[in-house]
Amino acid sequence: MAPKVAAAKKGEKRVGKAKSGTAETAKRRRGKRKESYAIYIYKVLKQVHPDTGISSKAMGIMNSFVNDIFERIAVESSRLSLYNKKATISSREIQTAIRL
């Protein structure tokens, strides 16, 4: 049989873990971060047109555009390094890839 637990008397302090807001937030996991060029696009926009804003849809389009151009340059520069039998992509391959 299980032992009986005495009821807490008036004025007695209970011993246990205190719940706090910071302990609960520390247990929560953050979602996986999505990399984006949004902050950089926004900074350049403010340099060029300080009084102009950008919508989230337009930012998504610009982010896709930057990713696409980056991938095209990377593929072309890697192709150039293979043609020249080099294992490393240097600034010269990237400059030539941009010209093409």
UniProtKB/TrEMBL annotation:
Annotated GO CC locations: nucleosome; nucleus
Region Disordered, residue ranges: 1-32
InterPro entries in the cross-refs: H2A/H2B/H3, Histone-fold, Histone_H2B
Domain of life of the native organism: Eukaryota
Gene Ontology MF term list: DNA binding; protein heterodimerization activity; structural constituent of chromatin
Annotated Pfam families: Histone
Domain Core Histone H2A/H2B/H3: 23-100
Cross-referenced CDD domains: HFD_H2B
Database matches in SUPFAM superfamilies: Histone-fold
Protein family membership: Belongs to the histone H2B family.
Protein name (Swiss-Prot/TrEMBL): Histone H2B
Native source organism of the sequence: Acropora pruinosa
The organism's taxonomic lineage, starting at the top: Eukaryota, Metazoa, Cnidaria, Anthozoa, Hexacorallia
Gene coding for it: H2B
